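Aim 2, interim progress: modelling of the nicotinamide-adenine-dinucleotide-bound target.
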Amino acid sequence: MSSDKPVAIVTGGGTGIGAACSKVLARDGFRVGINYIDIVEDSAKAVLAQIEDGFLLKADLTDADQIESMLAEIKEKAGRVDVLLNAAGISINKDINSMTLEDFDLQRAIVRGSWYLTKRILRLFMLRKNSGRIINISSVVGHSGNSGQIPYTMEKAALDAFTKSLCKELAGRNILVNSVAPGFIDTPMTQNLPEEVKKRILDSIPLGRLGDPEEIADVVSFLACRASYISGTVIHVNGGLYGG
Ligand code: NAD
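Predicted structure of the complex, ligand included:
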């Protein structure tokens, strides 16, 4: 059902940074479409239960047909989109000798899905008004590099290039496109790292701690709700780890 409320679609919105962003965007007045995949269904439902106004969107972004079905669902349930947050991601952690072509392709499939969703959702941005926000969650390691994550770092660097190019294509329609590049954030993605890796990471962060997902969500909310003259840029949120 359509309403006059602005609508934000959050991919990977059922866990970690995506979940925090879904909650903060809902708090800030958006109706939030929470995209998720099967394995995190319970978590996505729990996020939905905590927000004032939202709906669930089950779709695997590696599958173009599922993206198309999700778009039809968004059109039916919301009728418009004001903000797209591409937060879904996976990180495959192996050194170059152990990484397989299948690993590489899986990693690449997520950024391909984010690109395809963005391309296809644009028409919903145009229905009501000539403006909007697209925010991509990239990563510090797309800039600094990281041992054991070559395909992940390549895809995150690609996402920032996507941000910069899309900004130029959409500026004439007043759709602002930015990346938020987190450092190391306390989410399911980092919770499973081996203890010695966690210690090495902590030792390297000037602020001496991992970030909270809400600290990323606050920056996303700023871009979604208030920033009007920022586009094509990467905002680093990493406790001093890397300055861009
Ligand atoms: P997370 O694992 O909780 O979140 C990733 C989400 O993406 C999950 O909900 C997962 O189900 C979803 N997802 C994975 N494959 C998908 C697919 N094919 N289709 C749809 N959804 C899919 O971890 P997170 O840390 O919250 O990660 C969120 C984003 O932040 C990711 O893009 C990640 O790369 C990025 N990031 C995380 C950190 C960190 O330290 N946690 C640092 C930099 C960037």
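The chain has one domain: 7-185+214-235. The pocket of nicotinamide-adenine-dinucleotide is lined by residues 11-12, 14-18, 35, 37, 40, 60-62, 87-91, 110, 137, 139, 182, 184-185, 187-190 (CB under 6 Å).
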